[in-house]
Design a protein that fits this description.
Keywords (chain B): ATP-binding, Nucleotide-binding, Transport
Helix content of chain A: 55-70%
Distance between the termini of chain A: 30 Å
InterPro entries (chain B): AAA+_ATPase, ABC_transporter-like_ATP-bd, ABC_transporter-like_CS, ABC_transpr_LolD-like, MacB-like_ATP-bd, P-loop_NTPase
Largest interface: A-B, 28 and 29 residues
Structural class of chain B: alpha/beta
CATH class of chain B: Alpha Beta
Protein name (chain B): ABC transporter ATP-binding protein
Largest sheet of chain B: 6 strands, mixed
Pfam families (chain B): ABC_tran
Number of strands of chain A: 24
GO molecular function (chain B): ATP binding; ATP hydrolysis activity; transmembrane transporter activity
Oligomer: heterodimer
Number of helices of chain B: 8
CATH superfamily of chain B: P-loop containing nucleotide triphosphate hydrolases
């Protein structure tokens, strides 16, 4: 009991000093809980949506996917003849059934040809207005579409794009462009996370989306009372026979959930990963806090020991304080987590994803996970300092207590640290030398972990060296104040090491990812320069992979100034290789023979141009090796939606390279021979090459030609590279944003160390002020100490991260990431930024030191 | 009530005036109302230049407070304090800091040195802070005088208590301040080491013309001074010139007896 009482008193006596550690625990726990609440809420939202939108039983074409994502290779949704509807109606247990048509392979534009699609990557759906939709949507303005010139739009989209009744909207599909005027606006009765939805009447939808009357993509079936969905499914399936996909509401919802769920899971685990990094950084902060508290309390602990406390009791009293800290931090963290989740939801709404706080879902596991994690991590982190406290001898009570003696980094630490770092380095070396990706990744992971731990362990030793060097470069200019700042940073290398290491972790990840990211861009750029022989690429400008329609291809082909235009299609086929194996659903690329000059792919055998001869194809090296295919081998290729061809392998391409990696080529002409014209896949990409010297004018002309096709974008090589760079840059920015959490915790650590150091050095500060150090000089001294610690962490982190990044690049070179590019502006930016972070961290401690009363300071024992 | 003490204004060595520091009607009070405690009660004092002055008195008599006020470490409630001709009462922190840095030297009872700096760095610290170059000849003379020539590169933890205080004395002397204040500079030392330090202080007054004010409760230490001021209840109650340990002790016994009977 006494132990607990002492701990409680100590805890509350030092609540200021505990505050920063508590904030670190709070932030980490809040991020974990926030992530959990946020993803749970998203799940709830989608669950509600799927449950609300699915009819009791849905019938769709056999080739439709489970989730109802409906694009076929020919750019149209797979459909069923209208006769299916009549047959469904005859089935037992059917109360009602209706046919509907919808497609997400669409682009919808306003009168100015600006896209109305969501920017968040959520789908754009155009469909027929049916009773099933009327269940979940309420018309808030105007009326449902009637006739070919009317379209109804969902309320969110109407609001976002300021669409009013009577405004013109263009629906662009593989069939063509259909123009209609807004007849009504309908609002979802559940939360719609962000899809843009447009409704036409059934006949118009059929004509616009499929191009033929009397077809449906779905038949929505409602069960008669007393008939379960499963029973209904059975009787419908029996009535219409095989050749259709029949799903109950639950099955459809499950399929949708699985589809969204995998995305949500990736997001959840990625965010939890970053929360983990923040926790790791928080551990350093907690260790430092308790180490300093124990050091400051050495005399008190010595007294406790002298009057009979056992080591265990002292040890336990420190752990009890940690427990208290963990509990306080975690409880606040769990609460803040809900706030974080709401914040994330608001953030998502900026990107166009609507989530309602009505759906806020806090599972009972969330607070439990947060609490357990926060408390366990805090107590574990405090374990080492607690043990050190237990080792304080009773003699400490009698010794003169000035500032705690300078801690020396031990020889054991040096040996262990060097061994770990060495092992880490060896792991990284093996990773860079590995010739198998799987094996290399293992070494890389091992190398990263070991080198990180190694750096943390030898951090205090490195601190001595690095701080001296930094001091010589940066601080000497500031005379005695700089010198004292340097000495102060050096006086407890373990503390400086741990504080710097906390910053190191976040910055190492930043450096590593920036190296990998810029190497990706550089490698891709180099490969583009090396192998691409065409000037322009035309492709869908949003993520839905909308194919290029024949009309658009025609528009490209009739553009003046072009030397050649290459069509590029991708389809799937079942391969039967000479070794007798059948490979279902293998991707095959069909291109015009000019593609051989548009993209120079290295061959290991044969001539790629020959692959475009009739009934010929190419395979890539790895495929050839795996399936014992040689030049002249014949592969039976059963095209989807077509017949089976026997194609002769006339070229084997290298498996390296980033562009079109692992593609197997045949000619469009060959494809046409085996796939009927109406099932022929549309072009995934179109390449155009200008006549010599007409690149600029051709680019302008192409852009003009595609003006009527806002669903496509044309890019020349420069723009394409820029786009690539922007995409990777965006991804990196997102990751940096998430790493900011870990860096914030590390900055708190620097603040904490400085604040406690200032308290610890009260007497010294008093002495210096007495003999004439001005407040400004004092503040500057503390700021510089902070800057040096921050720069130390940055230097270690950036060095380590660049090492990891370079190793990862060597490893990824196996996959064509040939060029190592160190993004010096980023690296230098981070380094300089760290100095500012140091200045910022020192603001409050320096201010408080300056405020210190000189007399009290010298009087402090 | 103020006991006007007659202060002899004899000339010091090389000063602009005979008086290095003055206090006029200085009051220092803490708290207000019933809890008001008066530490200094209308004190008038002149510190003669080139002299070694000791301030004595029982605990709580206000001797440390007086020194802190004279040295610009503490503020007064009312009254004026002059360092030479500069009035320091009412100066802002910045000016006070500069004043302490450039014109005053300090020797505290303990914890005089920065543990991160070695002996010579500690000695030159006030000048370093001010951005001034130390006078090398003077510095060597000071170092020589305090007998630290072979210990200059040592850190404070590598020095004995006496050596540490000698470094503190050297630091106070090195910048040639107008006045050095010592707050029981030998309080933590054994008698031999204490005698050494006091010897240096005495010699710096005799040989170098330094002005020193020292707070002590040790009659032996006070005997090194030219003049002893006695404080009781925040007032200067007596003074003695050319003291010896015996006379100081007798005078203190006298006060004690008076204190008990009054």
């Amino acid at each position: 009991m006494t132990v607990l009482r002492t701990s409680m008193r100590n805890f509350f006596a030092h609540k200021g000093r505990m505050a920063l550690s508590a904030v670190a625990v709070l932030l980490s726990v809040a991020f974990v809980c926030g992530t959990l609440v946020f993803t749970d809420t998203m799940n709830t939202t989608f669950d509600k949506l799927f449950a609300a939108t699915a009819s009791d039983v849905t019938v769709s074409a056999k080739s439709a996917s489970d989730t109802g994502a409906t694009t076929a290779d020919n750019g149209k949704p797979p459909v069923m003849p209208a006769s299916v509807l009549d047959r469904v109606r005859k089935a037992r247990g059917v109360k009602s059934a209706e046919g509907s048509v919808f497609s997400s392979a669409v682009t919808v534009v306003d009168a100015d040809k600006d896209s109305l699609s969501p920017s968040s990557g959520a789908p754009t759906i155009v469909g027929s207005w049916n009773a099933n939709d009327a269940r979940t949507m309420k018309i808030t303005e105007g009326a449902a579409p009637k006739g070919s010139d009317q379209v109804m739009v969902d309320e969110d989209t109407a609001d976002k794009h300021h669409l009013r009744l009577g405004d013109e909207v263009g629906v662009i599909t593989a069939v063509g462009t259909h123009t209609a005027k807004v007849s009504g606006v309908a609002a979802f009765q559940v939360t719609n996370p962000g899809a843009a939805i447009f409704y036409l009447d059934t006949a118009t939808a059929q004509k616009t989306l499929v191009g033929e009357p009397d077809v449906y993509t779905n038949v929505n079936v409602t069960a008669a009372s007393g008939v379960s969905d499963a029973q209904l499914k059975k009787s419908v399936a029996a009535e219409i026979g095989a050749g259709f996909k029949v799903q109950t509401a639950e099955e459809a919802a499950d399929a949708n959930r699985e589809d969204v769920g995998s995305f949500l899971d990736v997001m959840k685990y990625a965010m939890l990963g970053f929360a983990g990094v923040a926790f790791l950084v928080g551990i350093f902060l907690i260790i430092n806090t308790f180490s300093m508290l124990v050091a400051q309390r050495t005399r008190e602990i010595g007294l406790m020991r002298a009057i009979g406390s056992s080591r265990k009791q002292v040890n336990r009293s420190v752990l009890a304080e940690a427990l208290l800290l963990g509990v306080v931090g975690s409880v606040l963290g769990v609460g803040a987590g809900v706030g974080v989740a709401v914040g994330l939801m608001k953030l998502m709404s900026l990107t166009g994803m609507n989530l309602s706080t009505d759906d806020l879902t806090v599972a009972w596991t969330t607070p439990v996970v947060g609490m357990v994690l926060g408390v366990v991590v805090t107590v574990l982190a405090a374990y080492l300092p607690a043990r050190r406290a237990g080792k304080v001898s009773p003699m400490a009570a009698l010794r003169d207590a000035g500032a705690p003696a300078d801690a020396k980094a031990g020889a054991v630490r040096a040996v262990v640290g060097l061994l770990l770092t060495g092992a880490g380095g060896a792991g990284l070396y093996l990773a860079s030398a590995a010739d198998k990706a799987a094996e290399g990744s293992l070494w890389l992971g091992l190398g990263v972990v070991l080198s990180l731990i190694g750096f943390v362990v030898i951090g205090p030793l490195l601190a001595g060296f690095v701080v001296r060097v930094l001091g010589a470069i940066v601080l000497r200019a500031f005379g005695p104040v700089g010198r004292m700042a340097e000495r102060n940073a050096l006086r407890n290398p373990r503390r400086t090491g741990a504080t710097g290491a906390a910053l190191m972790i976040g910055l190492a990840l930043v450096a590593c990812l920036s190296v990998v990211g810029s190497s990706m861009v550089a490698s891709a750029t180099e490969e583009l320069d090396k192998s691409v022989g065409t000037d322009f690429i035309i492709q869908s400008n949003n993520g839905n992979g909308q194919r290029v329609t024949p009309q658009a291809v025609q528009a490209v082909k009739s553009t003046p100034g072009l030397a050649r235009v290459t069509e590029y299609k991708v389809t799937e086929a079942d391969f039967t290789t000479p070794d007798g194996k059948t490979l279902d659903g293998t991707a095959i690329t069909a291109a015009d023979p000019t593609y051989a000059s548009d993209l120079r792919v290295e061959t290991v055998a044969g001539n790629l141009a020959d692959a475009y001869r009739p009934d010929s194809m190419s395979v890539h090296e790895k495929f050839a090796k795996d399936h014992k295919v040689e030049l002249g081998s014949r592969i039976a290729v059963a095209f989807r939606d077509g017949s089976t061809a026997r194609l002769t392998v006339r070229a084997i391409t290298s498996s390296d390279g980033v562009i079109d990696q692992g593609a197997m080529y045949t000619s469009v002409a060959t494809l046409k021979k085996y796939v009927p014209a109406d099932k022929l896949p549309l072009d995934a990409l179109v390449f155009a090459t200008a006549k010599d010297g007409q690149q600029d004018s051709a680019y302008t002309a192409l852009k003009a030609a595609l003006h009527d096709y806002p669903q496509y974008v044309v890019r020349d090589q420069t723009d394409y590279k820029q786009e690539l760079k922007d995409q990777i840059g965006q991804l990196l920015n997102l990751i940096y944003g998430l790493l900011a959490l870990a860096i914030i915790v590390a900055v708190l650590g620097v603040v904490n160390t400085l604040a406690l150091s200032v308290v610890e050095r009260t007497r010294e500060i008093g002495l210096m002020r007495a003999i004439g150090l001005s407040r400004r000089q004092l503040r500057r001294m503390i700021r510089m100490e902070s800057v040096v610690i921050a720069l130390f962490g940055a230097l270690l982190g950036l060095g380590l991260g660049m090492g990891w990044g370079a190793t990862a690049q060597r490893l990824l070179a196996l996959q064509g990431l040939d060029v190592l590019e160190i993004p010096w502006p980023t690296i230098i930016g981070v380094f300089v930024g760290s100095a500012f972070v140091g200045l910022f961290a020192a603001l409050v401690p320096a201010f408080r030191a300056g405020r210190m009363n000189v007399l009290n300071a010298i009087a402090t024992e | 009530m103020t006991s006007a003490v007659t202060i002899p204004r004899h000339g010091g060595t090389g000063g602009r005036t005979a008086v290095a520091a003055r206090a006029r009607q200085v009051v220092k009070a803490y708290g207000a109302g019933e809890t008001r405690v008066v530490a200094l009660d209308h004190v008038d004092v002149d510190i003669a230049r080139g002299q070694f002055t000791a301030i004595m008195g029982p605990s709580g008599s206000g001797k440390s407070t007086l020194m802190h006020c004279l040295a610009g470490l503490d503020t007064v409630s009312s009254g004026q304090i002059y360092l030479d001709e500069t009035e320091i009462t009412g100066l802002k922190d910045k000016k006070l800091t500069q004043l302490r840095r450039d014109r005053i030297g300090f020797i505290f009872q303990a914890f005089n040195l920065l543990p991160t700096l070695n002996a010579i760095e500690n000695i030159t610290l006030p000048m370093d802070i001010a951005g001034r170059k130390p006078d090398q000849a003077w510095l060597s003379q000071v170092v020589e005088t305090v007998g630290l020539a072979d210990r200059l590169k040592h850190r404070p933890t590598q020095l004995s208590g006496g050596q540490q205080q000698r470094v503190a004395v050297a630091r106070a002397l090195a910048a040639r301040p107008e006045i050095i204040f010592g707050d029981e500079p030998t309080g933590n030392l054994d008698s031999r080491a204490g005698a050494e330090v006091l010897g240096f202080l005495r010699r710096s007054v005799d040989d170098l013309g330094q002005t020193i004010v020292m707070v002590t409760h040790d009659p032996v230490a006070a005997a090194y001074a030219d003049r002893v001021l006695y404080l009781a209840d925040g007032r200067i109650v007596d003074e003695m010139f050319k003291p010896t340990a015996e006379t100081v002790l007798d005078r203190m016994k006298d006060f004690d007896a008076r204190g008990r009977t009054s």
